[in-house]
Each structure stands twice: as C-alpha cells, then as structure tokens.
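Reviewers of the previous submission asked for a worked example of the structure-prediction workflow described in the proposal, so we include one complete record here. The input consisted solely of the amino acid sequence. No template or homolog information was supplied to the procedure at any stage.
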Amino acid sequence: MPNAPINLAVMASGSGRTLGNFIELIARNELPARISVVVGSRPGLEALNRAAEAKILNFVVNKRDHADVASHSKAIFQLLDDANVDLVCLAGWLCLLDIPDRYAGKIMNIHPALLPSFGGQGMYGHRVHEAVLAAGCKVSGCTVHFVDNQYDSGPIVLQRTCPVLENDTADTLAVRVFEEEKIAYPEAIGLFAEHRLKIDGKIVHVQD
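From that input alone, the workflow returned the following structure tokens.
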C-alpha cells in the first residue's frame, strides 16, 4: 500500500452500494485511498445519504439544471478540480460526460457485465442482467474500465466472472455479480494507486 492514500471522487446516481463498499474498505485500511468528495446526479439519492453519514463532502450536480452534456460536465469537473482528486470513480453514474483532457486516464467505471458485450446507452442495472439471461450466457461478471466520452467503451482495466445458473433471475444474478464488483473495483483502484496501469490505445497494461 502506498504511504499516501490517493484522493478519490465518487460519482453516483443511485443507492451508493459501491460507495458503501469503498467506505468500509477504507475504514479497514484495505483500500489505499480517501474519498474527498461525492457527486450525485440528482437530489435525494441514497448515495448522498451514505456520504453524509460518513462525513464526506457531497454535492448534487443535477443534469436537469444544465442545457447540455458540456455544461453539466463543466460544473462537475470544476467541483473535482476544487477537491484536488487523483482518481474519479463512477459508481452507478448514469450520465454521459464530456471529459476534459486533464482527466484523461483518471476516470474509472464499473459495468455489471463482461464488456464489450451488454454495454452502451441504456444498459444499466437490471437491464444488463436481463439481457445476459435472454442471450443464454453461461457466465457473466463485471468490467472495470477507464472512461471516455462514450458509454462503456473505454479501455478495460480488469474483469471478474461468475456463473449464470440455470434458474437465475435478474435479481439473483445481480447479487452474484455485485460480489465480484466488490473485489474488482478496489483491485483496480489499488493498481492505479501503485502507478501500475499504462494505457496504450484501447489496451491497459498492468505493469509489475
């Protein structure tokens, strides 16, 4: 673990389960980071309540208050600049971003399927698991990837898999996938903190 934890921003549009996982791991000294700020995409999110309970600075940047993606993104990245974050982690964030050059290679997302399958606009939450089941897949899992200006298309950092069982529903599969997410995302953050990730086009190399 590095001597100085990295500063994270967490951006969420929902319940904040991933944020809660980060908070627990940091409290146990199992994640080399501190969460400097949490950004929610609308008021009333459980993720914001989790942040407040953990005494983490949190803000709402509501997409509805902005005319377009560029304006919404500008407001978000001004907050992140003020927080002096090293890495931005999307945790159930559903809004497209217009990423400034200074944040290239500094934003990660986790997707509840094995990209490049079952990704893209509108593919989130149970919609993903329903699509996996409808396709008859025998395995699913999660993907941590760097974020670019398109949905679910950035370079893949790592993936973890789990079986799709014969009688699975979207609910039961989601539980199993999230258990893998709880491992994969912190691992990716740790690799970033150790400066072991090198992006080469669409390929992420994990250096020794």
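The mean pLDDT is 96. We consider this example representative of the routine output the project will generate in years two and three.
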